[in-house]
Specification:
It is built from 15 helices and 24 strands. It is an alpha+beta fold. It starts with 18 loop residues before the first helix and ends in an 11-residue tail after the last strand.
Length: 484
């Protein structure tokens, strides 16, 4: 099955498309077929999305070192020339943008996520649409991004972290299990279904090599199962969006018609969206939006739960109710005293070491509760159900690790903090930032002491610790690499 990739380096598709596919497209497109076939002789387009969690659109554009051109169907989207190689730039590592195929950017606007809502991305890896959703949520509410394959879930989690999405929980569950855990729970649900990948033939050689009529039928059967489970997770009055990157009517229009026939509680909102490579600057994509009948029950207020047991919002991060639990088999915190000690360690680090501001604290802590998993401390959206028994890749924003009486901050925390949120930040030069991402130390003023949030061109890139005129490197070893 085709899965969207998150990488810059891509192979060109095989020159010869499957004969059975071409014959079907002739029947399907009629007089448009020649223009469609000719599109495969043209170079494809390349796109990226700026990250609203990191900067405003105009500020982003002012900081970009290469030319960009707007994608018409996504306000966050831009075309770029492949020679720019944005995947090898330090601003990519800082989460300033996400590289994404332009047509894929049409799906999240159709879903129309809003701050404060509960949202599910059921087939989320590698994270293109999840991070798009997170940007539009502006850090408020709950985003559950699910991917059953462990290796793909890790990539998804890494992309969520890089983009600084603090309100996202990453799960590794089958759709049937998600439906059982979250019945009627979400305001909006996205099913970006695994498909035959016909829309990516110009982009990915493997999609061509793996295509067959049998694979199309297999994908359609699996999509039907996934959509059935997704329908169970939408609250009354909620929205469900189904999308693919294929041209197959069996996987697209027939799927929509079959779903409506089985689910009278759902109605199609507007006509399905189909982007074609001969009609738009992008690859092939399909999306349909459904609305479930009814209205949200009394447990909702502005997209938020009002049941008893939720913490009050606090800006200082202190004295917050702590949910302890060992989800995914992890060891829970060692009692209330240990939990309080860990919370004290992290708040001491944030306020005493970094000088967290009042606005920064509100952004970081509001609507979230602390969770202990082993020695790691997380912030989880308070909208999330109890974590026990859920296979988790990421139970929220990882703050760091408590080692004896000391707190070691995580890279995820650095990427979730904007420079203006703390009093101790250090703006690196491009040369210092390049050395930092390679894992090197660099010289600083000997007067600098302790932890700093390191930034580049106004974007947070990681943590460093100054001592003796050197900035010690705390960039994760697994991410270190040379950049342009």
């Amino acid at each position: 099955m085709h899965m969207e990739r998150d990488r810059y380096e891509e192979k060109k598709p095989a020159a010869k498309l499957p004969a059975a596919f071409l014959e079907r497209m002739k029947r399907q497109l009629g007089s448009d077929y020649e223009a469609f076939a000719a599109s495969y002789d043209r170079e494809r387009t390349y796109g990226l999305r700026y990250n609203p969690l990191k900067a405003k659109r105009e500020d982003f554009l002012q900081r970009m070192p290469f030319a960009l051109r707007s994608v018409p169907w996504a306000e966050e989207g831009f075309y770029y020339e492949p020679a720019a190689q944005p995947g090898r730039h330090m601003l990519h590592e800082a989460g300033a943008y996400y590289i994404q195929e332009p047509s894929a950017m049409a799906v999240t606007p159709l879903l129309d996520p809003q701050p404060g809502e509960r949202i599910l991305d059921l087939c989320a890896a590698p994270g293109g649409k999840s991070t798009h959703i997170a940007g539009r949520m502006r850090g408020a509410g709950l985003l559950v991004a699910n991917e059953v394959a462990p290796s793909r879930a890790r990539v998804l989690s890494q992309n969520i972290e890089r983009m600084g999405a603090a309100n996202c929980v990453v799960c590794r569950e089958e759709p049937e299990r998600i439906a059982a855990l979250f019945p009627g729970f979400f305001d909006r649900v996205l099913v970006d279904a695994p498909c035959s990948g016909e829309g990516m033939f110009r982009k990915e050689e493997t999609a061509v090599a793996e295509w067959s009529e049998e694979n199309v039928a297999m994908c359609a059967a699996r999509q039907r199962e996934i959509l059935e489970q997704a329908a169970l997770t939408v609250r009354p009055g909620g929205v469900l969006v189904y999308s693919t990157c294929t041209f197959s009517v069996a996987e697209d229009e027939d799927m929509v018609g079959g779903f409506l026939a089985l689910h009278p509680e759902y109605a199609l909102e507007g006509a399905p969206v189909r982007l074609m490579p001969h009609l738009a600057e992008g690859e092939g994509h399909f999306a349909a939006r459904f609305r479930r009948a009814g209205q949200a029950d009394a447990a909702y207020a502005g997209g938020r739960r009002t049941e008893d047991g939720l913490c009050a919002r606090r800006a200082d991060g202190r004295s917050r109710k702590n949910k302890s639990g060992g989800g995914n088999g992890r060891r829970a915190g060692k009692g209330a005293d240990a939990s309080e000690a860990r919370e004290k360690a992290v708040t001491d680090f944030l306020y005493r070491e970094l000088g967290l501001t009042e606005d920064g604290a509100e952004t970081l802590f509001a609507g979230r509760v602390t969770q202990n998993f082993g020695d790691a401390l997380y912030l989880t959206p308070e909208e999330m159900i109890p974590l026990d028994g859920i296979r988790l890749e990421r139970p929220g924003l990882q703050l760091g690790f408590c080692e004896k009486d000391r707190f070691r901050p995580s890279h995820a925390l650095a990427l979730a903090l904007r420079p203006e949120a703390v009093g101790k930040s250090y703006q690196m030069t491009p040369g210092e930032a390049a050395a930092y991402v390679r894992g090197e130390t660099f010289a600083v003023d000997p007067a600098l002491k302790g932890w700093y949030l390191l930034t580049v061109q106004g974007f947070s890139l990681g943590f460093g610790k100054a001592a003796g005129g050197q900035m010690k490197n705390h960039y994760p070893k697994g991410l270190r690499r040379p950049l342009l």
